[in-house]
Amino acid sequence: MPKITAVPFPLDIEVGSTALVIIDMQQDFVLPGGFGEALGNDTSLLLAAVEPTARVLTAARNAGMFVVHTREGHRPDLSDCPPAKLTRVGQTFIGEKGPMGRILVRGEKGHEIVPRLAPIAGEPVIDKPGKGAFHATDLGQVLATRGIKTLVVCGVTLEVAVHSTVREANDRGYECVVLRDCVASYFPEFYRVGLDMITAQGALFGWVSDSESFVDAVD
Ligand code: C5J
Question: With a 6 A CB cut-off, is 175 part of the ligand 1 pocket?
Fold first, then answer.
């Protein structure tokens, strides 16, 4: 069984019961003109995670590993958007028109996954209205149907959607491995602490590894 080098200790990852989960690598977060930039952030910090994730995605596909993508966004009428998300100062532009279409709205260009990581046939895309990928989605059902026990997690942002999803998954009994160069934050401090929080106290929420170790493990 492949073993991946990780902190706080190496972990077995059986290809057949492991899924690569790529979280919210959407144009709205990663490229200028979307949600991330509207919040006042430097989106280039997130773009840096795309190439390492592309290498991981290729390795996972070559190994025959199950791949799942998620997207954060809302129905065009915003009926699935919690009122607080619409009214909190700083986020009131959800649903407004930007250069990539209506911000965080399904069907708009900004809502799409960046072309470099575009899903292919057989890779489910989970549309989620929240930060965590299990909340109000069928992700649990999709993973259970495939007998998945371990999640290798990439995506953005580390402290928001990645952390929310890893915590939800950990509570549901999944082993989670976050790949440090395949996740990103708009805030360097959140990136550092976010990774430490996952592995603290003997893998409180899971493990942290990197793209090279993943590729070596499944090669
Ligand atoms: C944020 C996300 N950062 N997908 N969403 O609001 O991490």
Answer: no
